[in-house]
Design a protein that fits this description.
The complex is a heterotrimer of chains A (409), B (350) and C (301). With 409 residues, chain A is of the alpha/beta class. Chain A has helices spanning 2-21, 46-65, 89-102, 114-126, 161-173, 191-207, 225-234, 244-257, 270-273, 275-278, 306-316, 325-344, 349-357; strands spanning 28-29, 32-39, 69-71, 74-84, 107-109, 131-133, 149-151, 182-188, 210-217, 238-242, 264-267, 286-290, 299-300, 304-305, 360-363, 366-369, 382-386, 392-394. The longest helix of chain A is centred in the first third of the chain and has 20 residues, at 2-21. Chain A starts with a helix and ends in a 15-residue tail after the last strand. Chain B has a domain at 27-263. Chain B is built from 16 helices and 2 strands. In chain B, strands 1-2 form a two-stranded antiparallel ribbon. Chain B is globular, with a radius of gyration of 21 Å. In chain C, helix 3 packs parallel to helix 5 (103-125) and helix 11 packs across helix 12. The chains are: A alpha/beta (409), B mainly alpha (350), C mainly alpha (301). Chains in contact: A-B, A-C, B-C. The interface between A and B is large, with 55 and 62 residues.
Chain lengths: 409, 350, 301
C-alpha cells in the first residue's frame, strides 16, 4: 500500500510540476514579445552578468516607451525572461533548452562570457532559435558555422594586438628591432582569456618577440603575486593581463603593492572592475581595450549619441562613475532585435534570422553589420589609457601613448 | 519472487520512465537529468550508505568519463586527433557522419566507463586506508585536484574547454536519444546494485559499515569488497559522465567536475531519501530534483538560499530521511520483522 | 619549469625572499582559521565546511565598518564580537542538534550553511570583488625586488597577537581548560560538572570569531567575493589534516608550510597549479600517513 503511495506521490509531483510550468509563454503572446536569456546572476561572472542585465533592461524600457516594436502594423512590447545560469556552462545549456522547449521562447539574448556562449550556442542553433549575443567575444564561436548566432561585439582577436603593436613601435622608435621586445602575459584560465592569448601568441611569433612569462592563473585565484614577482625579476617591456573583472581588480591592487614598473601594461575589463576608482595610483598608464567609448561619434534614433546613452544610463544607475561597455553592447543587442523584427515584419524564426543577417545600422554603440560567420565586422575595438587623474584617454597610435607608464609609488 | 508492492513500484516508475517523454515532451531533458540524479544517488549509496564510506569525490569519475569520452569521440574518426582540434581553438570543425557519431558516442560511453573504472582501482590503493572524515575529505581533495589538473592539460583543451560533436538528427530526437541513454543507465545501475546487495556482497559491505575491524578480524577481505563497490560506482558515473558531456555540448572544468553542486547533491539526495536503503536514494533523487527545478523557476534569486535551508532542515531535523522514517514507522511494509518479545522483556526488566 | 627554477636560484635569487614572505603572509592568516577548525573538530567532532564563508563574512563586516571610517584595530575587535555572537546563534539553531550524530551529517549541514551564507552575502553585497584599501605605504627592499606592504606587516602582527591571546586563553582561563577537558573526554567532563553544551557553543562561537578576524585581514590584504569561501575551506582543511588535531604549534607550522608550498609551486611549476597545491598536500599527507599506519597494521581514523 505504502509503495503505491510512493508512486502516486511521485507522479503527483510530476503532474503538479508540469502543471505549474505549462504556462509556456510562446515567443509572442498578445502584444508582448518575449526574449529569453540565461544570464550569470550568481557565480563568478555575476558582476558582468549584472552589467549586461542592466543594459538589456535599459534598452527594453527605452524601446517600449517609444512605441515598441512595429510588426504587421501593430505595436509590440518587449520583455525579457531571465534565468540564472550560475556562471556554469552546463546549467546555461540546460536553461537555454528550458527557455526554448518549456517556455516556448523563440528569440534569445546571449549570456555573459565566451564560455557560457559556447555552451548555449549549440542549443539555440539546434532549435533554430536566433540569438543575438553581446558578451561572448571568443573568435572560436564564429568558426563553428553557426547560422543562428550573431554578435554585436568585436571578437577577441581585436582586443589586444594594439598593445603589442605599441611595444613593437616603441622598440622601433629607439632604433631597435621589434623582436627585441620582451613580453610577459598572465591569463585567467577561462575560454575568453585563453582565446585572447592564442591570438597574441601568434602575433608574438610573427614579430619574433621573446615571451618571457606566460602564466595561466586558476579561475579561483585571488593572488597574482607569483607572476608579479617574476615580472620584477625579468623586467619585461610589456605586461598583458586578462581575466575578467576579478583579474583586473586583483592585478591592479597587487601591481600597486609590489610597485611594478613595466613601461607598458595592458589589461582587460578595467572599467568593469573600476580600477581607476579603487586603485587610482596604480591604474595610471593602464592600457584598456574597450568595445565602446562614450565619446565616439556614433548615434541612432533610439538612444541618441553615445554620450546621450551614457548620460541616460548613468542617470538610471548612479552607482557607475564609468559605465562598463558590457552594458552598452547589451543595449545594442536589444536594439538590433527591434530592427530585425521590423525588417522581417514577421515573427517567423527563419525570416527574423535572415533579417538579422542583413542588418546594417549605426547605433550609439557603433556600426553593426554581421559577417557571414555572425560576428560584427563593422566595429573596431578601442584602446584607452588611464591617465593619472583617472580619466580614460583614447590612444590610436604610439604617439598618443604616455610612454613609459607615468606612475610614482 | 518479488513482493506485490515492489512489483507495483517498478511498474509505476517504469511506466513513468517510458511514457514520460511522450506525455510531457517539453520536459524530456529535465526528466533525463532526473534519471541522472537517480543514478548518481544510487551509486553513491553503495559506498556511502551501505558501506559507511562517505565519499565526496565520486564526481571525479563523472568528469573523467566525460573527458575520456570526448577524446574518443573526436579522435576516432578525425585523423589529426584531439590535440590538433583543441590547439586550433575552434578554428577546426570536424564533420562526422551520422554513423560515425553514433559509433563515437557508444564507444565514448564505454571508454569513459572503463577509464573511470581504472582510475577507481588506482585510487583504491591509497584511499581505503583512510576512515571516516579523512576518507570524505580525501575524496573531496581528489575531485578538486582532478579539476585543477585537467585545466592545465592542453591536450583536452585546458581552460578553453572542448566543444563536443553536434548531434545529427533533429532536436526532438536528440532529447529522446539522450533520455533513453540516461534512463537505461539508471535502470541498469539500479538492478546491478539490487543484485549485488542481495548476495553476500551486500551482507559483507553492511558488515564493513557496522564494524570494520570485527569484519576484518572475521577474515572478510574488506579491501576487495571496497574496491568492487567503488569500481561499480565508477563504471556508472563514468558512463553517465560521457552522456552528460554530450548533453551539455561543451565541456570544461566546471561542467565535468561540478563539485560544489552535483558532487554534494548526490549526498544530499541520499540523505533526504534515506541512507543505506535500496529505494531511499531513488526517492531522494526524485524529490530533490523536483524541488530544485521548481525553486529555480519560481524563486529566481533565492533558489540557493532555499536549497541551503532545505538541506539544513533535512539534516538537522529529519536525519533518517524519508525511507528511514517510513521504515521505523511501518516496518512490516518493508519485511522488517520487529521482535516484540524482546522489547517487552526489556520493558519489564527496566 | 626549468626557466623558473633558474630564475629562482641562479638569475635572481633575491626573489626567494619575496616568495617566502608571500608564503608566510598566506600562512599566517590561515593559521587562524585552521586553528578554529581544529578546535571545533577536536572538541565537537564537527567538520565545518562553511569555514571559508565565515572568513568572507568577517571580511564583508570589515568592509562595512571601514566605510564608517573606523580604524583597523577597532574594526577587528567589533568584527570578532559580531562573529562570536553569530557563531553562538548558529550553534543554537543548527549545530546543537547534530553534535552527537553521524560525522557526515556535520559536513552536509555545514555545507547547507555555506550555501545559505554565500547566497545571503551575494544578495546583500553583490557579486563584485571588493577589498579594503588601507592606503598604507609599502616598504621596498633590495632595489625594489622585494616589496612588503605595511598592511601585510600589520596583519602578520595582528595574527601573531591573536594567536598569542588564543594560546594564553586556552591554557590559563577556566573556559579554556573546560574546552580542553571536554575535548579529551566529554562524558567525564560532564560528570565533573562542566556544562558541555555551553562549552560546545563557546567553541563554535570562538571558531567563528577567529575566522572573522582572519576575514578582516583577508579583506585588507587580498580581495573578497561571496563565492571564494570554498577555496579557503579547502585550504583550512588541508592545514588541519596535515597538522593533526591536537596542537597549536603544529597548526601554525603546517599553515606556514602550506603557504610556502603554494607559493613555491606557483613559482616553479606554474601559477596554474597554485590552487591545486594545498589539495595535493592534503592528499600527500593522507597517503603518507596511511603508509605509516599500515606498518602498524592500522588505519587513519
Amino acid at each position: 500500500m505504502f509503495k503505491n503511495f510512493k508512486i502516486i506521490t511521485a507522479m503527483a509531483f510530476a503532474v503538479v510540476a508540469a502543471g505549474f510550468s505549462s504556462s509556456a509563454n510562446a515567443g509572442v503572446q498578445g502584444d508582448t514579445i518575449t526574449l529569453g536569456s540565461a544570464l550569470s546572476l550568481t557565480g563568478k561572472y555575476a558582476t558582468n552578468g549584472l552589467h549586461t542585465q542592466r543594459g538589456y533592461d535599459f534598452a527594453v524600457d527605452r524601446i517600449n516607451s517609444t512605441g515598441g516594436v512595429m510588426v504587421g502594423g501593430k505595436s509590440y512590447k518587449l520583455t525579457v525572461k531571465y534565468y540564472d545560469d550560475e556562471s556554469t556552462p552546463a546549467r546555461g545549456a540546460q536553461l537555454a533548452e528550458r527557455l526554448i522547449q518549456q517556455d516556448g521562447v523563440e528569440f534569445m539574448l546571449g549570456p555573459y562570457s565566451s564560455g557560457m556562449t559556447k555552451a548555449i550556442a549549440p542549443v539555440s542553433e539546434k532549435f533554430g532559435v536566433p540569438m543575438i549575443e553581446a558578451e561572448g567575444a571568443s573568435r572560436s564561436l564564429f568558426t563553428q558555422g553557426y547560422k543562428y548566432l550573431f554578435a554585436v561585439l568585436s571578437t577577441t582577436d581585436l582586443y589586444l594586438p594594439g598593445a603589442l603593436n605599441f611595444a613593437a613601435d616603441q622598440k622601433k622608435s629607439i632604433g631597435k628591432p621589434a623582436s627585441d621586445a620582451r613580453v610577459a602575459m598572465a591569463f585567467e584560465g577561462d575560454p575568453f582569456s585563453m582565446d585572447i592569448r592564442a591570438g597574441l601568441v601568434e602575433m608574438i611569433k610573427d614579430y619574433g618577440m621573446k615571451l618571457v612569462i606566460d602564466d595561466q592563473l586558476p579561475a579561483d585565484l585571488s593572488d597574482m603575486s607569483t607572476t608579479l614577482t617574476k615580472v620584477k625579476a625579468l623586467k619585461p617591456d610589456i605586461l598583458i593581463i586578462s581575466g575578467h573583472s576579478k583579474g583586473a581588480a586583483t592585478a591592479a591592487r597587487q601591481i600597486d603593492e609590489m610597485k611594478i614598473n613595466v613601461p607598458i601594461i595592458a589589461m582587460t575589463h578595467c572599467e568593469a572592475a573600476k580600477v581607476h576608482e579603487k586603485f587610482p595610483n596604480a591604474a595610471t598608464g593602464f592600457l584598456c581595450p574597450t568595445q565602446w567609448v562614450p565619446g565616439i561619434d556614433k548615434k541612432d534614433a533610439m538612444f541618441g549619441s553615445a554620450a546621450d546613452w551614457n548620460a541616460d544610463f548613468k542617470a538610471a544607475h548612479p552607482s557607475y562613475s564609468s559605465v562598463p561597455y558590457q552594458s552598452a553592447q547589451a543595449s545594442a543587442a536589444v536594439y538590433v532585435w527591434k530592427e530585425a523584427f521590423e525588417a522581417a515584419n514577421s515573427f517567423d524564426k527563419k525570416a527574423v534570422r535572415d533579417a538579422i543577417a542583413g542588418v546594417e545600422m549605426q547605433t550609439f554603440y557603433g556600426d553593426v553589420k554581421f559577417g557571414p560567420d555572425g560576428n560584427n565586422v563593422a566595429k573596431p575595438m578601442f584602446l584607452r589609457q588611464i591617465g593619472s587623474d583617472g580619466s580614460y584617454n583614447l590612444v590610436s597610435s604610439f604617439s598618443d601613448l604616455a610612454y613609459p607608464r607615468n606612475v610614482s609609488y | 519472487m518479488m513482493r506485490r508492492s515492489t512489483f507495483i513500484t517498478y511498474a509505476g516508475l517504469g511506466l513513468f520512465g517510458i511514457l514520460g517523454p511522450i506525455l510531457f515532451p517539453a520536459y524530456t531533458l529535465s526528466i533525463a537529468y532526473l534519471w541522472m540524479m537517480v543514478l548518481m544517488a544510487s551509486t553513491w549509496d553503495i559506498l556511502g550508505g551501505q558501506m559507511g564510506y562517505n565519499s565526496l569525490g565520486n564526481i571525479t569519475f563523472f568528469g573523467v568519463g566525460m573527458y575520456v569520452s570526448a577524446i574518443i569521440q573526436i579522435s576516432i574518426f578525425y585523423e589529426p586527433g584531439v590535440g590538433e582540434y583543441t590547439s586550433a581553438m575552434g578554428a577546426i570543425k570536424p564533420e562526422f557522419t551520422d554513423q560515425q557519431y553514433y559509433w563515437g558516442i557508444f564507444l565514448g560511453i564505454f571508454g569513459g566507463a572503463i577509464a573511470a573504472l581504472a582510475l577507481s582501482l588506482i585510487f583504491s590503493t591509497f584511499m581505503f586506508g583512510l576512515r571516516g572524515p579523512y576518507f570524505a575529505i580525501g575524496s573531496l581533495g581528489l575531485a578538486i585536484a582532478a579539476a585543477e589538473i585537467t585545466v592545465t592539460i592542453n591536450y583536452v583543451g585546458g581552460a578553453s574547454g572542448i566543444s563536443m560533436p553536434m548531434f545529427p538528427g533533429d532536436i526532438e530526437f536528440r532529447s529522446v536519444f539522450f533520455y533513453i541513454l540516461c534512463f537505461t543507465l539508471a535502470v541498469l545501475s539500479h538492478f546491478v546494485i539490487r543484485g549485488m546487495l542481495s548476495t553476500q556482497f551486500g551482507l559483507a559491505i553492511n558488515a564493513i559499515r557496522d564494524d570494520e575491524d570485527k569484519a576484518e578480524a572475521m577474515g572478510l577481505p574488506t579491501l576487495i569488497y571496497k574496491q568492487i563497490g567503488w569500481a561499480v560506482t565508477a563504471v556508472f558515473m563514468g558512463a553517465i559522465g560521457a552522456v552528460a558531456g554530450n548533453m551539455a555540448g561543451f565541456i570544461d572544468k566546471e561542467v565535468a567536475y561540478p563539485v560544489p553542486t552535483f558532487g554534494i547533491f548526490m549526498v544530499a539526495m541520499v540523505l533526504l531519501g534515506g541512507k543505506g536503503t535500496l529505494w531511499g536514494p531513488v526517492l531522494g533523487a526524485i524529490i530533490f530534483h523536483i524541488v530544485k527545478e521548481t525553486t529555480w523557476t519560481y524563486l529566481l534569486g533565492w533558489q540557493w538560499v532555499t536549497l541551503g535551508l532545505i538541506l539544513i532542515i533535512n539534516i538537522v531535523y529529519f536525519q533518517q530521511g524519508i525511507m528511514g522514517w517510513l521504515q521505523s514507522k511501518y516496518p512490516e511494509m518493508f519485511g522488517i520483522v520487529v521482535d516484540q518479545s524482546n522489547i517487552n522483556q526489556e520493558k519489564k526488566e527496566s | 619549469m626549468f626557466d623558473n627554477l633558474q630564475l629562482l636560484f641562479v638569475w635572481a635569487p633575491i626573489i626567494n625572499v619575496q616568495v617566502i614572505l608571500d608564503g608566510i603572509f598566506v600562512g599566517a592568516v590561515f593559521a587562524l582559521c585552521a586553528y578554529g577548525l581544529a578546535l571545533v573538530w577536536g572538541v565537537m567532532n564537527i567538520k565545518n565546511l562553511a569555514q571559508g564563508d565565515f572568513v568572507i563574512m568577517g571580511g564583508y563586516l570589515a568592509l562595512v565598518l571601514h566605510s564608517w571610517n573606523l580604524p583597523l584595530p577597532v574594526i577587528l575587535i567589533i568584527v570578532t564580537i559580531i562573529m562570536f555572537v553569530y557563531g553562538w546563534s548558529i550553534y543554537a539553531l543548527i549545530i546543537r542538534r547534530i553534535v552527537d550524530k553521524d560525522m557526515f551529517v556535520s559536513l552536509l549541514a555545514t555545507f547547507g550553511l555555506s550555501l545559505l551564507m554565500q547566497q545571503a552575502m551575494n544578495l546583500y553585497f553583490g557579486p563584485e570583488v571588493q577589498t579594503i584599501d588601507m592606503k598604507l605605504p609599502v616598504i621596498d627592499a633590495f632595489d625594489n625586488m622585494v616589496t612588503i606592504p605595511y598592511s601585510k606587516i600589520i596583519s602578520l602582527a595582528l595574527a601573531g597577537i591573536i594567536t598569542a591571546a588564543v594560546v594564553i586563553f586556552m591554557k590559563k582561563s577556566r573556559t579554556g581548560q573546560a574546552i580542553r577537558a571536554t575535548a579529551q573526554d566529554a562524558r567525564a567532563a560532564r560528570v565533573l560538572g562542566i556544562d558541555t553544551d555551553r562549552v560546545y557553543a563557546f567553541t563554535f562561537a570562538f571558531n567563528s570569531a577567529l575566522c572573522g578576524a582572519a576575514g578582516v585581514l583577508v579583506s585588507v590584504i587580498w580581495v573578497i567575493q561571496p563565492f571564494y569561501g570554498i577555496t579557503y575551506s579547502v585550504r583550512t582543511f588541508a592545514i588541519v589534516t596535515a597538522a593533526g588535531l591536537g596542537n597549536l604549534p603544529g597548526v601554525i607550522s603546517a599553515a606556514f608550510g602550506i603557504g610556502l608550498f603554494e607559493k613555491y609551486t606557483g613559482m616553479i611549476v606554474g601559477t596554474a597549479y597554485e590552487v591545486a597545491a594545498p589539495v595535493m598536500i592534503l592528499l600527500l599527507v593522507l597517503i603518507i600517513r596511511q603508509i605509516h599506519m599500515k606498518r602498524n597494521r592500522q588505519v587513519v581514523r
